[in-house]
Amino acid sequence: MSPDDDRNDGLFGGSGETRTRLPEGEGGGDDVYGGGLRRSARGGRTSSRSLVTVVGVVVLLIAAIAFANRGGDDSSSGDSDGKKPDAAATAPTGEKPVGGKNGGIPSGYAHDEQGAQSAAANYAVALGSADMFSKDLRHGIVNVVYTPEEATKRQADLDKVYSAEKFLNSIGLDKSGAAPKGTTFVSRIIPVGTKTTKFDGDSATVEIWYSSLFGLAGENTKNPVSESWFTNSYELRWVGGDWKVSDFRQKDGPVPVGRDQRASTADDMAKAVEQFGGFTYAR
Q1: pLDDT tens, position by position, 247-269
Q2: What tens digit of pLDDT does each residue of 189-238 get?
Protein backbone atom coordinates (compact mmCIF):
# COMPACT_ATOMS: atom_id res chain seq x y z
CA MET A 1 0.00 0.00 0.00
CA SER A 2 1.17 3.54 -0.64
CA PRO A 3 1.67 6.14 2.12
CA ASP A 4 -1.67 7.65 1.12
CA ASP A 5 -3.34 4.26 1.57
CA ASP A 6 -1.87 4.02 5.08
CA ARG A 7 -3.30 7.39 6.01
CA ASN A 8 -6.75 6.28 4.87
CA ASP A 9 -6.67 3.10 6.96
CA GLY A 10 -8.09 4.96 9.92
CA LEU A 11 -11.03 6.16 7.89
CA PHE A 12 -12.27 3.35 5.72
CA GLY A 13 -13.61 0.13 7.18
CA GLY A 14 -11.97 -2.07 4.61
CA SER A 15 -13.63 -0.91 1.40
CA GLY A 16 -10.99 1.49 0.12
CA GLU A 17 -10.26 1.77 -3.58
CA THR A 18 -9.62 -1.40 -5.51
CA ARG A 19 -6.66 -2.02 -7.76
CA THR A 20 -7.34 -3.44 -11.23
CA ARG A 21 -4.49 -5.35 -12.86
CA LEU A 22 -4.87 -5.37 -16.65
CA PRO A 23 -3.95 -8.58 -18.49
CA GLU A 24 -0.78 -8.59 -20.50
CA GLY A 25 -0.89 -8.36 -24.26
CA GLU A 26 -3.38 -7.01 -26.70
CA GLY A 27 -4.74 -10.33 -27.90
CA GLY A 28 -8.37 -11.28 -28.23
CA GLY A 29 -10.60 -12.15 -25.36
CA ASP A 30 -13.90 -11.27 -23.85
CA ASP A 31 -15.04 -7.75 -23.09
CA VAL A 32 -15.65 -7.58 -19.37
CA TYR A 33 -18.71 -5.52 -18.35
CA GLY A 34 -18.56 -3.71 -21.69
CA GLY A 35 -15.79 -1.49 -20.40
CA GLY A 36 -12.96 -2.48 -22.72
CA LEU A 37 -11.13 -4.55 -20.11
CA ARG A 38 -10.24 -7.80 -21.82
CA ARG A 39 -9.04 -11.17 -20.67
CA SER A 40 -5.88 -12.21 -22.44
CA ALA A 41 -6.03 -15.20 -24.76
CA ARG A 42 -5.23 -18.57 -23.20
CA GLY A 43 -3.00 -21.27 -24.61
CA GLY A 44 -4.03 -24.70 -25.82
CA ARG A 45 -4.01 -26.28 -22.36
CA THR A 46 -7.47 -25.00 -21.47
CA SER A 47 -9.40 -27.91 -22.98
CA SER A 48 -7.23 -30.58 -21.33
CA ARG A 49 -7.40 -28.84 -17.97
CA SER A 50 -11.19 -28.53 -18.29
CA LEU A 51 -11.42 -32.28 -19.04
CA VAL A 52 -9.38 -33.11 -15.94
CA THR A 53 -11.60 -30.81 -13.86
CA VAL A 54 -14.79 -32.45 -15.16
CA VAL A 55 -13.46 -35.95 -14.48
CA GLY A 56 -12.42 -34.89 -10.99
CA VAL A 57 -15.88 -33.49 -10.23
CA VAL A 58 -17.56 -36.69 -11.47
CA VAL A 59 -15.31 -38.84 -9.27
CA LEU A 60 -16.07 -36.68 -6.24
CA LEU A 61 -19.82 -36.84 -6.91
CA ILE A 62 -19.76 -40.64 -7.20
CA ALA A 63 -17.78 -40.91 -3.95
CA ALA A 64 -20.15 -38.55 -2.15
CA ILE A 65 -23.25 -40.44 -3.31
CA ALA A 66 -21.73 -43.77 -2.27
CA PHE A 67 -20.84 -42.40 1.15
CA ALA A 68 -24.30 -40.89 1.67
CA ASN A 69 -26.07 -44.15 0.79
CA ARG A 70 -23.68 -46.50 2.55
CA GLY A 71 -25.55 -46.50 5.84
CA GLY A 72 -28.95 -47.40 4.28
CA ASP A 73 -27.91 -50.38 2.14
CA ASP A 74 -27.48 -52.91 4.95
CA SER A 75 -30.78 -54.79 5.19
CA SER A 76 -29.70 -56.58 8.38
CA SER A 77 -29.70 -53.37 10.44
CA GLY A 78 -32.40 -50.94 11.49
CA ASP A 79 -36.09 -51.53 12.21
CA SER A 80 -37.68 -54.77 11.04
CA ASP A 81 -40.34 -52.87 9.09
CA GLY A 82 -37.68 -51.22 6.98
CA LYS A 83 -38.35 -47.69 8.29
CA LYS A 84 -35.35 -45.48 8.80
CA PRO A 85 -34.98 -42.95 11.62
CA ASP A 86 -35.76 -39.35 10.69
CA ALA A 87 -32.79 -37.11 9.97
CA ALA A 88 -32.01 -34.54 12.66
CA ALA A 89 -30.09 -31.29 12.33
CA THR A 90 -26.73 -31.12 14.05
CA ALA A 91 -27.00 -29.08 17.22
CA PRO A 92 -24.81 -25.95 17.38
CA THR A 93 -22.09 -25.77 20.00
CA GLY A 94 -20.44 -22.97 21.93
CA GLU A 95 -21.81 -19.66 23.16
CA LYS A 96 -24.55 -18.00 21.13
CA PRO A 97 -22.55 -15.26 19.35
CA VAL A 98 -25.29 -12.86 18.30
CA GLY A 99 -28.31 -11.94 20.40
CA GLY A 100 -29.93 -9.21 18.33
CA LYS A 101 -29.38 -6.27 16.04
CA ASN A 102 -28.60 -2.60 16.56
CA GLY A 103 -29.39 -0.39 13.58
CA GLY A 104 -29.47 -3.47 11.34
CA ILE A 105 -26.01 -4.59 12.52
CA PRO A 106 -25.72 -7.80 14.59
CA SER A 107 -25.00 -7.05 18.25
CA GLY A 108 -25.01 -8.72 21.64
CA TYR A 109 -21.83 -10.77 21.29
CA ALA A 110 -20.46 -13.22 23.81
CA HIS A 111 -17.90 -11.78 26.23
CA ASP A 112 -15.13 -14.11 25.03
CA GLU A 113 -12.78 -14.73 22.09
CA GLN A 114 -15.58 -16.26 20.05
CA GLY A 115 -17.72 -13.17 20.50
CA ALA A 116 -14.83 -10.85 19.61
CA GLN A 117 -14.23 -12.71 16.34
CA SER A 118 -17.93 -12.58 15.45
CA ALA A 119 -18.03 -8.85 16.17
CA ALA A 120 -14.97 -8.16 14.03
CA ALA A 121 -16.42 -10.07 11.06
CA ASN A 122 -19.82 -8.40 11.19
CA TYR A 123 -18.37 -4.93 11.78
CA ALA A 124 -16.04 -5.34 8.81
CA VAL A 125 -19.03 -6.16 6.60
CA ALA A 126 -20.87 -3.03 7.77
CA LEU A 127 -17.87 -0.73 7.39
CA GLY A 128 -17.13 -2.04 3.91
CA SER A 129 -20.71 -1.78 2.63
CA ALA A 130 -22.22 0.65 0.13
CA ASP A 131 -24.22 2.12 3.04
CA MET A 132 -21.08 3.97 4.11
CA PHE A 133 -21.59 6.26 1.11
CA SER A 134 -24.88 7.56 2.54
CA LYS A 135 -24.39 10.16 5.29
CA ASP A 136 -27.29 9.07 7.50
CA LEU A 137 -26.54 5.36 7.16
CA ARG A 138 -22.82 5.97 7.69
CA HIS A 139 -23.44 7.84 10.95
CA GLY A 140 -25.58 4.96 12.20
CA ILE A 141 -22.93 2.38 11.32
CA VAL A 142 -20.10 4.32 12.95
CA ASN A 143 -22.11 4.85 16.16
CA VAL A 144 -22.85 1.12 16.42
CA VAL A 145 -19.43 -0.24 15.45
CA TYR A 146 -16.98 2.08 17.20
CA THR A 147 -16.56 2.93 20.86
CA PRO A 148 -18.38 6.19 21.75
CA GLU A 149 -15.12 8.13 22.00
CA GLU A 150 -13.79 6.79 18.70
CA ALA A 151 -17.10 7.35 16.88
CA THR A 152 -17.11 11.01 17.89
CA LYS A 153 -13.55 11.47 16.64
CA ARG A 154 -14.12 9.74 13.30
CA GLN A 155 -17.47 11.12 12.17
CA ALA A 156 -16.18 14.48 10.89
CA ASP A 157 -13.23 12.93 9.06
CA LEU A 158 -15.42 10.27 7.48
CA ASP A 159 -17.95 12.86 6.34
CA LYS A 160 -15.16 14.86 4.75
CA VAL A 161 -13.73 11.89 2.86
CA TYR A 162 -16.97 10.30 1.72
CA SER A 163 -18.39 13.61 0.51
CA ALA A 164 -15.25 14.71 -1.37
CA GLU A 165 -16.27 15.16 -5.00
CA LYS A 166 -12.81 14.22 -6.28
CA PHE A 167 -12.90 10.94 -4.40
CA LEU A 168 -16.45 10.12 -5.50
CA ASN A 169 -15.63 10.89 -9.13
CA SER A 170 -12.58 8.64 -8.97
CA ILE A 171 -14.80 5.65 -8.18
CA GLY A 172 -17.48 6.61 -10.69
CA LEU A 173 -20.08 8.20 -8.39
CA ASP A 174 -21.60 11.68 -8.61
CA LYS A 175 -21.12 14.34 -5.92
CA SER A 176 -24.08 12.98 -3.94
CA GLY A 177 -22.60 9.48 -3.88
CA ALA A 178 -25.07 8.06 -6.39
CA ALA A 179 -24.16 5.69 -9.22
CA PRO A 180 -24.74 6.79 -12.83
CA LYS A 181 -28.06 5.81 -14.43
CA GLY A 182 -28.03 2.23 -15.65
CA THR A 183 -25.31 1.10 -13.23
CA THR A 184 -25.24 -0.54 -9.80
CA PHE A 185 -22.66 0.47 -7.21
CA VAL A 186 -21.09 -2.53 -5.48
CA SER A 187 -19.14 -2.41 -2.23
CA ARG A 188 -19.19 -5.64 -0.29
CA ILE A 189 -16.87 -7.54 2.04
CA ILE A 190 -16.91 -11.35 2.27
CA PRO A 191 -15.04 -12.65 5.34
CA VAL A 192 -13.04 -15.84 4.80
CA GLY A 193 -11.81 -16.36 8.34
CA THR A 194 -10.87 -14.73 11.64
CA LYS A 195 -8.34 -15.32 14.40
CA THR A 196 -7.67 -13.80 17.79
CA THR A 197 -4.10 -12.59 18.21
CA LYS A 198 -4.61 -11.07 21.66
CA PHE A 199 -7.27 -11.43 24.33
CA ASP A 200 -7.35 -9.91 27.80
CA GLY A 201 -10.86 -10.05 29.21
CA ASP A 202 -12.22 -6.64 28.17
CA SER A 203 -9.92 -6.10 25.19
CA ALA A 204 -9.05 -8.15 22.13
CA THR A 205 -7.21 -7.95 18.83
CA VAL A 206 -8.80 -9.89 15.99
CA GLU A 207 -7.55 -10.35 12.44
CA ILE A 208 -10.02 -10.93 9.64
CA TRP A 209 -9.09 -12.15 6.17
CA TYR A 210 -11.59 -11.21 3.51
CA SER A 211 -12.37 -10.65 -0.14
CA SER A 212 -13.74 -7.29 -1.28
CA LEU A 213 -15.97 -6.60 -4.28
CA PHE A 214 -15.88 -2.97 -5.38
CA GLY A 215 -16.91 -1.04 -8.48
CA LEU A 216 -19.80 -0.30 -10.82
CA ALA A 217 -21.84 -2.98 -12.57
CA GLY A 218 -23.03 -1.50 -15.85
CA GLU A 219 -22.35 -1.26 -19.55
CA ASN A 220 -19.27 0.73 -20.58
CA THR A 221 -18.30 1.58 -17.00
CA LYS A 222 -14.72 2.64 -16.41
CA ASN A 223 -14.78 1.08 -12.94
CA PRO A 224 -16.02 -2.52 -13.36
CA VAL A 225 -16.58 -4.60 -10.25
CA SER A 226 -13.28 -6.17 -9.27
CA GLU A 227 -12.06 -8.37 -6.44
CA SER A 228 -9.35 -7.58 -3.89
CA TRP A 229 -8.02 -9.40 -0.85
CA PHE A 230 -7.09 -7.84 2.48
CA THR A 231 -6.48 -8.63 6.13
CA ASN A 232 -7.72 -6.19 8.76
CA SER A 233 -6.57 -6.19 12.35
CA TYR A 234 -9.26 -4.82 14.70
CA GLU A 235 -8.63 -3.67 18.22
CA LEU A 236 -11.79 -4.26 20.23
CA ARG A 237 -12.95 -3.16 23.68
CA TRP A 238 -15.83 -4.43 25.80
CA VAL A 239 -18.02 -1.34 26.24
CA GLY A 240 -21.62 -1.17 27.46
CA GLY A 241 -22.06 -4.93 27.33
CA ASP A 242 -20.74 -5.46 23.80
CA TRP A 243 -17.58 -5.47 21.70
CA LYS A 244 -16.72 -2.18 19.96
CA VAL A 245 -13.90 -1.16 17.61
CA SER A 246 -11.29 1.21 19.02
CA ASP A 247 -8.83 1.03 16.09
CA PHE A 248 -7.80 -1.08 13.12
CA ARG A 249 -5.08 -1.59 10.54
CA GLN A 250 -5.22 -3.00 7.01
CA LYS A 251 -2.76 -4.87 4.82
CA ASP A 252 -2.96 -6.55 1.42
CA GLY A 253 -3.57 -10.29 1.00
CA PRO A 254 -3.10 -13.15 1.25
CA VAL A 255 -4.21 -13.24 -2.40
CA PRO A 256 -5.14 -16.61 -3.98
CA VAL A 257 -4.36 -17.57 -7.57
CA GLY A 258 -7.27 -16.67 -9.87
CA ARG A 259 -9.11 -19.42 -11.72
CA ASP A 260 -9.64 -19.46 -15.47
CA GLN A 261 -13.29 -18.38 -15.27
CA ARG A 262 -15.19 -16.21 -17.71
CA ALA A 263 -16.18 -12.88 -16.17
CA SER A 264 -19.94 -12.33 -15.86
CA THR A 265 -21.82 -9.70 -17.80
CA ALA A 266 -22.68 -6.36 -16.24
CA ASP A 267 -26.35 -7.39 -16.07
CA ASP A 268 -25.59 -10.67 -14.31
CA MET A 269 -23.35 -8.93 -11.81
CA ALA A 270 -25.96 -6.27 -11.01
CA LYS A 271 -28.68 -8.91 -10.57
CA ALA A 272 -26.46 -10.99 -8.29
CA VAL A 273 -25.78 -8.04 -5.99
CA GLU A 274 -29.48 -7.16 -5.82
CA GLN A 275 -30.74 -10.72 -5.34
CA PHE A 276 -28.12 -12.20 -2.98
CA GLY A 277 -28.18 -10.73 0.52
CA GLY A 278 -25.31 -10.71 2.98
CA PHE A 279 -24.70 -13.03 5.92
CA THR A 280 -24.42 -12.66 9.67
CA TYR A 281 -20.97 -14.01 10.50
CA ALA A 282 -20.31 -15.94 13.68
CA ARG A 283 -17.84 -18.39 15.20
Answers
A1: 999 999 999 998 888 888 878 88
A2: 999 999 999 999 999 999 999 999 999 998 878 889 999 999 999 999 99
0.90 exceeded by the pTM? no
Name residue 82's beta-bridge partners.
none
Q: Are strands 203-217 and 100-102 parallel, antiparallel or unpaired?
A: unpaired
Contact residues for 211 (Cβ-Cβ < 8 A; gap 6+): 189, 190, 192, 227, 228, 229
* Domain layout of the chain by residue ranges: 3-17+99-275
Q: Residue 29: CB partners within 8 Å, gap ≥ 6?
A: 23, 38, 39, 40, 41
User: Which of 3.30.300.30, 3.20.20.100, 3.10.450.230, 3.55.40.20 is the CATH number of 3-17+99-275?
Assistant: 3.10.450.230
